[in-house]
Amino acid sequence: MLKNFNGKLSKPLSVALGFFDGVHNGHRKLIEIAKSQGYNTAVFTFKGKFFKNSKGSVYTFSEKAELLKDLGVQYVIYAKTTQDFFNMGAIEFLQSFISRFNVKTFVCGKDFTFGKNAEGTIETLRNFCLKHDINFIVADTQTYNGVKISSAKIKELLKNGQIKTANELLGSPYFITGKVLKGRGVGTKSVFPTANLTINKNKILLKSGVYATKTLYNGVLYNSLTNFGNCPTFNLQKPLIETHLLNFNGNLYGEKIKIYFLDYLREIKIFKNSEELKEQIQKDMGYFND
Question: What is the 3-state secondary structure (H, E, C) of 226-290?
């Protein structure tokens, strides 16, 4: 359940604190600890663009909320990313939080900061919790091959097409959700039918290329191939997401789908004609036969 930070909730809560952009393995550790405390599990996060110079988020807010729900989080408490909120001091933020929500436990990572100019540290939070009889837990840093797991690292991997490693850090396959648009018609007529999505301007751009994916539609998971980027063979330069669902017949126009990215297969190529493209797609399908 979504709860605005300006709302109220009387139920006892164990709250995991963070931005939770990628809902990665580091975040999942916080949630695991929060769930173990015997109270209702909540996550505090943000809705909106977090950094002025951000290159995009790993997930949209709605995708993030969906992931958190799947992980057993009962309440997603969110604050909008306004200047007024970011001007709030560390202690003012904590006082405001416990005046609205019945917090029994706070959980955070070792590098968690909060309040105006990131003035609040885990020591600030520890002292506050001691004063107000709130349990406080700092989770160990989660690493992968000796490197700290972070949303920044995951974004770097996604931009470089290292989707399999990104998925290892995330804890589950990276995905994109959206409603299927009316396509250009080329795939349906001469190559393979595709479900087309626009690229969300608020999300990180993946490396352009062809990916092995799985697509969820109407409760059924289909093997699929996804082109992320332009389509030079048909002189289309506007970036787009085009997905071909294997063994699917039907019209997806206007329907919601979720595409899980499994592996980066190849760069986008220019083909002489649609038949040459079709031959390459047949080869790409071989990924699912291995």
Answer: EEEEEEHHHCEEEEEEEEEECCCCCCCCCCEEEEEEEEEEECCCCCCCHHHHHHHHHHHHHHHHC
What is d(CA 74, CA 42) in angstroms, rounded to the nearest whole number? Answer: 6
Range of the domain at 69: 2-148
Verify that 182 and 65 share a domain, yes or no.
Answer: no
Q: What is the pLDDT of residue 40?
A: 98
Over residues 149-194, the pLDDT tens digits come to: 999 999 999 999 999 999 999 999 999 999 998 764 444 444 578 8
pTM: 0.91
Q: 144 and 177 share a domain?
A: no
pLDDT average, residue stretch 90-111: 97
Dist CA 140 CA 145 (whole Å): 15
| CB 188 within 8 Å of CB 195 | no
Coil/strand/helix, residue 14: strand
